Amino acid sequence: MSNDEWRFGLTRWSAAVLALVGALVFIVGVWVGVWSVPAEALDVPMQASEYGPEKHIAYQPAPTWLPFMSVFVGGLGSYAAWRVTHPDRFE
Q1: Domain span at 81
Q2: Per-residue pLDDT in tens (0 to 9) along the chain, 91 residues
Q3: Per the structure, how many domains does the chain have?
Q4: Nearest one of 33, 35, 19 to 74, comparing CA atoms
Q5: Is residue 87 part of a domain?
Q6: Who's near 23: CB < 8 A, 6+ residues apart?
């Protein structure tokens, strides 16, 4: 195995690009999946506020953990790409 090849016949550059693209595709896929739910599916019962007649939906369409997971997966993909392209720091 030469210095430019990594595993499975991939070069280090292509393995790093694969890690970044994989993380990006996962993040975009989850967000598009959440946003692709039609508005009729979110037609849920409303709850009245105790402070006034205004109402808000009882179900939040995007979970609160989704932005944190997106940052975590993006950071994990970036770290994997950096680690693949800088092997001398880990050997």
Answers
A1: 9-30+61-91
A2: 455 666 778 888 888 999 999 999 999 999 898 888 776 676 666 666 666 665 555 556 677 888 999 999 999 999 999 988 887 776 6
A3: 1
A4: 19
A5: yes
A6: 73, 74, 76, 77, 78, 80
